[in-house]
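Before relying on records like the one below, remember that each one covers exactly one chain. Contacts with other chains, cofactors or solvent are not represented anywhere in the record.
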Amino acid sequence: MSNFLGIAAVTATLTQLVGEAAATAVTGAGTRNARPDSIPTGEMNDAFVNVFLYQVNPNAAMRNMELPTRDSSGALVQRPFLALDLGYLISFYGNESDLVPQRLMGAVLRRLHSEPILGRQRIRDTVASIAFLASSNLADDIESVRLANLGLTLEEIFKLWSAFHQSPYVLSTAFQASVVLLEGLGSPRAALPVRSRTANVLPFRYPEILSIDPPVFPFVPGAQLTLLGRNLDSPAASVMFRELEGTIVEPLTAERARVQLPAGIRAGVNTVKLHHDLLIGLPPVRHKGVESNAAAFMLQPRLVARSFTPAPEPSIEVTLDPPVGRDQEAHLLLNQTAIPPGQAPLMFTFSLTGRAAPAA
């Protein structure tokens, strides 16, 4: 990108290009860089072309392209740049009776139309011939500077020349030079060097659980179940029972996974998912990958202890494994076993009140 001399380098290069075209139309024609209202009246019959920079605007296409230039601590991470469009008023002077301004305009417009880009070598040659532009690096800019005729309307031309007090209007046209990239100040902190690089190729496949065997079973410590489905195998697989991680007890196959229930699982309806994690980096580090659908199964609690208190108020206390959760409901069913002849069996249902298990 260009340093602060970029704008002046564009003006000098454009002036040289205009001067070459003017010299082919009128012998001895020159160029100037001056405000139109600063040109003496007595010199307006001299044959020359005036190139005047009258406007500088941010480039609409690139004004928001730069990434954030500072991190959360305020440190510079990328040098900012400024994208600009330059507006030039090109005026043609000379003897009107010899149509000098018109001849100059024709030659200049033809040249700028056939050469709408300021070439890098032309920029280098121009700045090398001007001492105060010798350190300009515009020629190494990532974007070429393109020229375009703005085609101002009569009203726009009137407004523009009205800004030059007591300056008579002369034949003129307006061109835009775009885009000029000016690099900001400051040196960002250098990033750490890359010690190694890796490439990871992953298949586009997702695990799918179709069924669970068995779908309903009583709880015992270390209970296992089998997941049946598609694309279950993975070198970095894990199985999750809601927030609890289970254990894969057998090597996975594409259609089958044998897993063990985790400690702390609740009785009742549970769900299980199979995760395919990613091993990325050197050494490989496990990262979250894709997961299967959630499959449901019923885990039946077991009655591990019971006691009956007949008086003063009859009560029954039972201990379940796994214990009842805080947001779960449990009901005790009492069925009559010895049924007298001719009598319908009796069945009672009681809601259980949970109580914390005694400390070990």
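The chain is about 15% helix and 35% strand.
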